Amino acid sequence: MAHTYPKHEKLKSRTTIELLFSKGQSVTKYPLRLVYLPQTFDDGSAIKMGVSVSKKYFKRAADRNYYKRLLRECYRLHKAGLLDAMPQPHAMMLLYQSNDRLDFAEIEQKTLALFEKFRAKTTS
């Protein structure tokens, strides 16, 4: 599988995002949180992923953009394992919820643990 994050996998629909936060479930691995909701998409995508970093924790846009880039990269590199665990299409949002300034290796480790918790929760 190619390690890509194409446009059709990006979560951009405001209604889907609102539905995700109102009816979705979540798993947490500090400082990350994954909110997900099983949903079918018109374009046939298996997953729609969005990332978010709160202004509450990082006041400067440059810092928020840096952590969003790291989250997207972690997703891109490890999405194959995530897709294998999903029996149906999902909308997902990956959130960074702390003012702790972790480096890429630590964020990648936490992301893998978060995806493993998601796999365990959806396959049981």
Can you characterise this structure?
The protein is of the alpha+beta class. The chain has one domain: Ribosomal Protein S5, domain 2 (2-Layer Sandwich). Helix content is 44%, strand content 21%. It has 3 helices and 4 strands, in the order αβββαβα. Strands 1-2-4-3 form a 4-stranded mixed β-sheet, sandwiched between helices. Strand 3, helix 2 (61-84) and strand 4 form a beta-alpha-beta unit. Helix 2 (61-84) packs across helix 3. The longest helix is centred in the middle third of the chain and has 24 residues, at 61-84. It is globular, with a radius of gyration of 14 Å. It starts with 13 loop residues before the first helix and ends with a helix. The relative contact order is 0.24. The model has no long low-confidence stretch (mean pLDDT 93).
